[in-house]
Write a structure and sequence with these properties.
By secondary structure, this protein is an alpha/beta fold. It is 22% helix and 22% strand. The chain has a single domain (2-7, 23-277), classed as 3-Layer(aba) Sandwich (Rossmann fold), CATH 3.40.50. The longest helix has 17 residues, at 64-80.
Amino acid sequence: MSIQSNLTNTNLIFPTTFNEENRVTLFHGDCEVFLNSLPPSSLQLVVTSPPYNVGKEYETNMPFNEYIEWQDKIIGLCVDKLKDQGSICWQVGNYIDRKNKNEVFPLDIYLYNSFKSRGMQLRNRIIWHFGHGLHANNRFSGRYETILWFTKTDDYVFNLDPVRVPQKYPGKKAYKGEKAGQYSSNPLGKNPSDVWEIPNVKSNHIEKTEHPCQFPISLVNRLITSMSNENDLVFDPFMGVGTTLAASALNNRRSAGCEIHRPYLDIAATRVKKALNNELSFREDKPVYEPPAGSGLTQNPFILEQ
């Protein structure tokens, strides 16, 4: 069986069953089934943003404890198929209990032990900060989600240079010691730290599709280029519209993904095809836009001029 991109004038077909030689594998169905078909130690990197159990069209609501048990099962399968040098990045937000006064349950805290109990080692709890989202009335508005980055062993892939960001003071010089007067910053840029400010994909975002909760390519690019090498296999068990696979194609990695919602799978096929042909539009990894001082956007119309 195969899945064809729905772009016009293309015959590109993606396989739906895994083979080591596949550049891309798109599986329409339950990720548990697909994971059980993989050989051991086949995955270098798992990057995903699973359903949050909040009632989106692509998920089935379940009691919170059952949801955590289900996630634990999928995490266990991912760990089983991971290479010794591999990593897992589980990007999650909060579960909001609408039936219990909107109580917040931070999913990364509830899922931490699913990794730790299997011998995985936490390297970073990355904070993804974004400036836009729903406005809350009875608590502070949520403007971040987390990425739990776990490795299987101490011998893991980590490439810092490809994800360095511009220095705040690139012209800074050492003022004492043997290197006094010499530039003190790394010419390639600085470590991006564990707090990443990257816009989320909302209505006017260049990457927006019909998926309500897709994450941006620049976010996934950092994970893929730092935690895998070219031709490594990157896997997303909850693929959605294929951001992880598109980013993998852009960075010359093999990829595989699972999706139960057919319309999203078709969009993923189209986006991956565009990425393979260098035709995919996406926001570059760059600082968030700041409107110039004095522009209409920066003026408060509710404050009367003195």
